[in-house]
Design goal:
The structure is a single chain. 46% of the residues lie in helices and 9% in strands. By secondary structure, the chain is mainly α. Strand 5 and strand 6 form a beta hairpin. The chain has 3 domains: 156 residues, HUPs (Rossmann fold, 3-Layer(aba) Sandwich); 154 residues, HUPs (Rossmann fold), CATH 3.40.50; 75 residues, Arc Repressor Mutant, subunit A (Orthogonal Bundle). It has 20 helices and 9 strands. The structure holds one RNA strand.
Length: 466
RNA sequence: GGCGCGUUCGUCUAGUGGCCCAGGACGGCUGGUUCUCAACCAGCAAAUCAUGGGUUCGAAUCCCAUACGCGCUACCA
């Protein structure tokens, strides 16, 4: 069997989309499962949408998830260059061969004419497609226009009344009537190829064996089938992944929604392995019904053919749960390191103090971001209080704590006996102390927290409360 | 409008003709451990398997139609 080679081809148009990572996960896992390579190619043919610096951000994102490509513009590889903008002469050469074989032609139609044409088609309830005006041009007419310097694009021809079929690894057998396939532009007037030409040429030249991409591409695939046929090349196996929908199920996960961007998860305190695990659950179902499993297990067990075809919604609540599971599975030392890596300001806090707070807040966190709100009171006095407190009750607590040894078991005995003596519920007394010391009505176990806070600081805060 | 794909609890799903009066997870609710929250444990509610027709002794599972949803329909990817 030939080597398995998968590829991701992002466009440098901004922060990477979580859908890209979802694809990378499949590419990566499939290539590892089959002892192949995973390639990254930069699809920077759209100069209008190009964003400076986006390429670096893409590497960062991949690295954060631990899904680094084996070949890329950055690390190079035997099929360089991996940036499409550096492969322009190549596309030109293949386009010329297509023209030579009569599978593509020059089109001199202006944007204005094209827009006009589409408008009329829409008005007449016809499918908006190129009307093939320039297909009728004679060789001499083409030569003359070229000589006059009239701008042009190259379009691919499409046979009439033919069924174009392909077998999709995920979606199964798909057929299209060639009459609904447009004479797609394959080379733009600026000399850049469109996606359709570039993807076919590059996937072939880079010896990509398996193409995984979102299902939105399925309607374009017949064009690619045709192109492979025109070139006389074998087509790689294609697998179209189900789209991920927005939380409300209306439309595919879009950049309008903040959580479509990888940045959202990084800044939100999510662990990359948890996000990957969640993404794995979207694309695949564990045979034992497990929902939490490491990437290695996904790579070992997942079956590309078992992927469903329906588009799931993105469920942030479930991601939070998965993330919480991963946080709780971390040992305290590792969680500490992760917190510092996530938020450098946590690294400036007293190290041993942070260490002691971690066991208390760990099971209360679903994201790293929550550490600050959960443990903030250890490091600074509350700036406000969620509710006022009863001074008389509080003074009972203060007296009890003043006289006790400073370990939480002794403190508990002291607080309980004080509340009994005063005829108030212990839980009410706990609550008053909690609000005065932490500013909040909920939080980590009170007495253990006070033990860490220290007697002096605790009493000082109670004093202020009175 | 055309073409393509899809439709099982609120959400993600298991399920490929009898083992399903449909199982699991998230979320919700109730109770327990407990100083609160969280966590953990126990339990509850929640799907006439989109609808209508077939096929079959038997259908969530196969076929057809309808409805709805999503995707594509650019010199964007």
């Amino acid at each position: 069997m030939d080597t398995v080679r998968t590829r991701i081809a992002p466009s440098p148009t901004g922060f990477p989309h979580i859908g890209t990572i979802y694809q990378v996960l499949v590419d990566f896992a499939f290539s590892r499962q089959n002892h192949g390579q995973f390639v990254m190619r930069l699809e920077d043919t759209d100069r209008a949408r190009f964003v400076e610096g986006a390429e670096g951000i893409i590497y960062d994102a991949f690295a954060w998830f631990g899904l680094a490509p084996d070949e890329s513009p950055k690390v190079g590889g035997p099929y360089a260059p991996y940036r499409q903008s550096e492969r322009l002469p190549l596309y030109r050469k293949y386009v010329d061969s297509l023209i030579g074989k009569g599978y593509a032609y020059h089109c001199f139609c202006t944007r204005g004419r094209l827009d006009e044409m589409r408008k009329t088609q829409e008005k007449n309830h016809q499918p908006p497609m190129y009307d093939q005006t320039c297909l009728k041009l004679t060789a001499d007419e083409v030569r003359a226009r070229l000589k006059d310097g009239i701008p042009y694009v190259i379009r691919m021809k499409v046979p009439e009344h033919e069924t174009i079929a392909f077998d999709d690894l995920i979606a199964g057998h798909i057929e299209f009537d060639s009459d609904v396939i447009d004479h797609q532009v394959i080379l733009k007037s600026d000399g850049y190829p469109t996606y359709h030409l570039a993807v076919v040429v590059d996937d072939h030249l880079m010896e990509i064996s398996h193409v995984f991409r979102g299902k939105e591409w399925i309607s374009s695939t017949p064009k690619h089938v045709l192109l492979y046929r025109y070139f006389g090349w074998d087509m790689p196996v294609h697998g179209h992944l189900p789209l991920i929908l927005n939380e409300d199920g209306k439309g595919k996960l879009s950049k309008r929604h903040g959580h479509a961007s990888v940045e959202y998860y990084r800044k939100g305190g999510y662990l990359p392995e948890a996000v990957l695990n969640y993404l794995s659950n979207i694309v695949w179902h564990h045979p034992e019904g497990k929902e939490i499993y490491p990437l290695a297990e996904f790579i070992r067990l997942f079956d590309i053919r078992s992927i469903g075809s329906q588009a799931p919604r993105f469920d942030l609540k479930k991601l939070d749960w998965v993330n919480g599971q991963y946080i709780r599975a971390l040992d305290d030392k590792e969680l500490h390191e992760r917190l510092v890596a996530f938020d450098a300001s946590i690294g400036t806090l007293e190290h041993s103090l942070v260490s002691r707070t971690i066991p208390l807040v760990k099971e209360r966190m679903s994201t790293l971001k929550e550490y600050r709100s959960l443990a903030g009171f250890f490091f600074e006095r509350p700036k406000g209080f969620e509710r006022p407190f009863a001074a008389d009750v509080l003074s009972i607590g203060k007296k009890a704590l003043e006289m006790t040894d400073w370990d939480h078991e002794a403190m508990e005995r002291a607080v309980r006996s004080a509340s009994e003596k005063a005829g108030i519920k212990a839980r009410d007394l706990f609550m008053e102390i909690r609000v005065a010391v932490t500013g909040k009505t909920v939080g980590p176990p009170l007495l253990e927290s006070l033990e860490i806070l220290g007697k002096e600081e605790t009493l000082k805060r109670l004093e202020i409360g009175l």
